Amino acid sequence: MTVGRSAAAVLVALSMAAAVGCGGSKQPSPPPETAATDPGPIAPTSELALPPGVPDKPTGPAAAASRRVINNWLKALRSGHIKAAAHYFALPSKFQNATPVLTVHNEQERIAVNTSLSCGAVATEMGAAGVYTIVKFRLTERRGGNCGTGVGGTARGAIRVERRKIKEWYRLPDKPGGQQQAPPAEGPAV
After folding, report:
1. pLDDT tens-digit profile of 112-143?
2. Do 123 and 137 meet the contact criterion of CB atoms below 8 Å apart?
3. Whole-number pLDDT of residue 161
4. Phi and psi for 60 in degrees, rounded to 5?
5. Per the CB 3.0–4.6 Å rule, which of 10, 11, 21, 86 could disulfide with 188?
6. What would the CATH number be for the domain defined by 57-174?
C-alpha cells in the first residue's frame, strides 16, 4: 500500500494493529508446547520500515514546546479521553505503529489512531534529533484500553510536533539502530 490511504484502509490497519497489540520490550515467552512451532520474529517488509530521514536516537535536548504537547497528549490518552488525545494530532498527519505509514486525514481517522493504542504511557526520556522528538515510553494502563502484559514495558517513538500538534508519529525499534518492530503475537503497547 502507498502512503496516501483511504479512511477505510486506515481503520482496517489500525483495527488489526489494536487486535494484535503494538509491541513493547516486555513480552511473555511462548508456552513450551508452542515454542518449537513458533517461527520467531517476522522480518519487516519495506512497508514496515521507517521512512528515510526518520532518526532513531536523539542528538540533543528536546524542545520544551514539543515536550509539553507530547506529555499533554499522553495524559489525555492514559485518562481514556480519546477525543482529546486525538486532537493533539494535526490534520493531515502521518502515523506508523507496526503498520505501513498511514496518512490521517480526518477526525474519524485520528480518533482511530488513538483508539488503536491499547496502552497508556508516560514519557521517561525525551531528546531531539532534527525536527523530531525521540521519546522513550513506559507503558501503563489506559482507561478503556487493554494493555494486559504490556504494562511496565517500554516503547520508543519519533514524534514531530508542529504548531502545537503531532504532525508525524513513528514507532521506533526498542534500541537505537535496531530493526523496525514486526507486529507481536501479544503484548499491546503505545
Report:
1. 999 999 999 999 999 999 999 999 999 999 99
2. yes
3. 98
4. -170, -175
5. 21
6. 3.10.450.50
Cα separation, 164 vs 83, in Å, equals 16
- Length of the chain equals 190
**Grid cell locating 65:** 514546546
SS3 125: strand
DSSP code string of 46-93: GGGSPPTT--SS-SEEPPHHHHHHHHHHHHHHHTT-HHHHHTTEEEEE
Tens of pLDDT, residue by residue over 57-99, are: 999 999 999 999 999 999 999 999 999 999 999 999 999 999 9
| Residues 6 or more apart in contact with residue 99 via CB below 8 angstroms | 13, 14, 16, 17, 48
Q: Strand 132-140's sheet: what is its strand order?
A: 60-61, 120-129, 132-140, 154-162, 165-172, 89-96, 102-104
Per-residue pLDDT, 9: 55
Over residues 138-152, the pLDDT tens digits come to 999 999 999 999 999
Choose among 77, 93, 58, 76: nearest CA to 165: 93
Query: CA 78 → CA 42, 71, 116, 117, 157, distances in Å?
Result: 30, 10, 13, 10, 17
Cα–Cα distance, 178 to 13 (Å, whole number): 23
Query: For residue 119, which amino acid is it?
Result: C
Residue pair 156/172 in contact (Cβ under 8 Å)? The answer is yes
